[in-house]
Design goal:
Helix content: under 10%
Structural class: mainly beta
Number of helices: 1
Number of strands: 3
Number of domains: 2
Largest sheet: 3 strands, antiparallel
Oligomer: single chain
């Protein structure tokens, strides 16, 4: 059944499951608000001034720290990442099937120029 013809219901259909259907008819009962606000990436860098490096063999120096997947505000699926939808095929597009959330990753970078 296409989403445009799915019935709007307040309770899921408790019909008899058969081998052909397994009671998986489209329903609006499990539809949730998918809106979210995310800070995907943040980076802080510092270039060392030449007078701090002095007369050493290092001409340039920079240090930076960054973080990916900093925070996510959502009421969607009790904190499950709304961008990590796991779909097994065309009919499953838009259905959540227990995909793993996106990991938070931290980076530290030191760049030297000789």
């Amino acid at each position: 059944m296409e989403a445009s013809t799915a019935a709007v219901v307040s309770l899921p259909n408790a019909g008899v499951a058969t081998a052909a259907s397994w009671n998986n008819s489209a329903s609006s009962f499990f539809v949730e608000n998918g809106s979210y606000l995310r800070l995907q990436n943040i980076q802080l860098s510092y270039n060392f001034p030449k007078k701090l490096l002095g007369n050493s063999f290092i001409q340039k120096a920079m240090v930076s720290v960054s973080c990916n997947n900093v925070w996510l505000i959502t009421s969607h699926m009790h904190g499950v990442d709304p961008e990590s939808v796991y779909a097994t095929g065309t009919p499953a597009v838009g259905f959540e099937n227990g995909g793993a959330p996106t990991s938070r990753i931290y980076y530290i970078n030191l760049s030297l120029g000789f």
